[in-house]
Design goal:
Elements lengths: L8 H30 L6 E7 L5 E6 L15 E2 H4 L5 H9 L4 E2 L5 E4 L9 E6 L3 E7 L6 E4 H6 L10 E6 L2 E15 L2 E11 L7 E3 L1 H4 L2 E6 L4 E6 L13 H23 L12 H21 L11
Helix pairs in contact: 3-7, 6-7
Length: 312
């Protein structure tokens, strides 16, 4: 309540104004203190992630949009723009809706072969969640390989504008398009974002199940019982981020970092590389740049600690 008016009206008006100003300033600071207590570790704008009761990660650029019960660090709230300055809102939202990288589970899987010929092990596969095919298990192949007809069915770019790398085949050295398969599922074993190459001379074969899929597992082949055991390299009893342990993350970052560096070196010094006249160096560089950035975004979305995170 304001003090009673003194007899001097001019002095009275000044006093009233001063009291109103003091009360407003005090009210402003009280309001700021309430906001600070309500958001103890955040500011109102930035990039935040939080998890709901189902464990789903959400992203927002305004703390006021986060439900009240999730506005604390012990509920999974994290300020991302300070911790990961390279990550944008668009990247965070895109990565949260994408499947990520590597195996989706730490469970072991038993796969039954479909032998067509002696010593050849065939398996049924499901590609990108909807296209069925039959692959030969080839532990000696560095990449998963798919036929050109299968690539067409999957609507993949295999033209000269696609990234190409050289492979040694039974018919000699060839330059083959590189693609990324959203997922490969063999039995119940599923791996996301799998690199593959497209071979235009596979005849009736759909493809080969090579190391870009198989290296995610410890493999035990039992030809006598016509089965194969796939055991993910990460175990549920160790620290995991996105079902992957620290060694998996270190290895994947190292691989993409080296591949990206080699692609950049080729693009910067094309005279040192023997390639076909149509070869487009930039496409390979962009291919590994995109994979590296996607891996980084996925690492952030699953809460990979800073000591394991390798900035783009």
């Amino acid at each position: 309540m304001l003090n009673p008016l003194p007899s001097n009206n001019s002095f009275c008006i000044v006093q009233i104004c001063e009291q109103i100003f003091r009360k407003k300033v005090a009210g402003f600071f009280v309001l700021m203190m309430i906001c600070w207590l309500h958001f103890p570790h955040t500011a109102h704008s930035g990039l935040f992630s939080w998890k709901d009761e189902n464990g789903k990660t959400h992203f927002t650029d305004s703390a006021s949009k986060i439900p009240k019960k999730y506005r604390s660090e012990d509920k999974g709230l994290e300020r991302l723009d300070k911790k990961y300055p390279h990550l944008s809102m668009n990247q965070a939202e895109t990565e949260s809706s994408e499947p990520g990288f590597g195996p989706t589970s730490t469970n072991p899987f038993e796969i039954t072969f479909k032998n067509r010929d002696a010593g050849v092990h065939n398996v049924d596969v499901l590609l990108n969640g909807g296209v069925k095919a039959e692959f030969i298990v080839d532990t000696g192949a560095s990449f998963v390989t798919i036929s050109k007809s299968l690539a067409k069915k999957l609507d993949l770019n295999t033209t000269k504008s696609a990234p190409h790398i050289q492979f040694t085949t039974a018919g000699g050295k060839v330059w083959s398009p590189l693609v990324v398969l959203q997922s490969i599922k063999v039995g119940d074993a599923e791996v996301h974002n799998v690199e593959a190459n497209v071979n235009q001379h596979m005849g009736d074969l759909d493809g080969l199940l090579g190391q870009t899929f198989l290296s995610e597992f410890e493999i035990h082949m039992d030809a006598g019982s016509n089965r194969m055991m796939l055991r993910p390299r990460s175990r549920p009893d160790e620290p995991l981020w996105g079902n992957k342990n620290a060694n998996w993350w270190k290895g994947k970052f190292k691989y993409f970092k080296q591949a990206r560096r080699q692609a950049k070196a080729m693009a910067q010094h094309p005279e040192q590389v023997k390639v076909p006249s149509w070869y487009q160096f930039k496409s390979l560089e962009e291919y590994y740049e995109n994979l590296y950035q996607s891996l980084y975004n996925h690492a952030v979305s699953v809460g990979l600690p800073a000591y394991l995170l390798v900035s783009p």
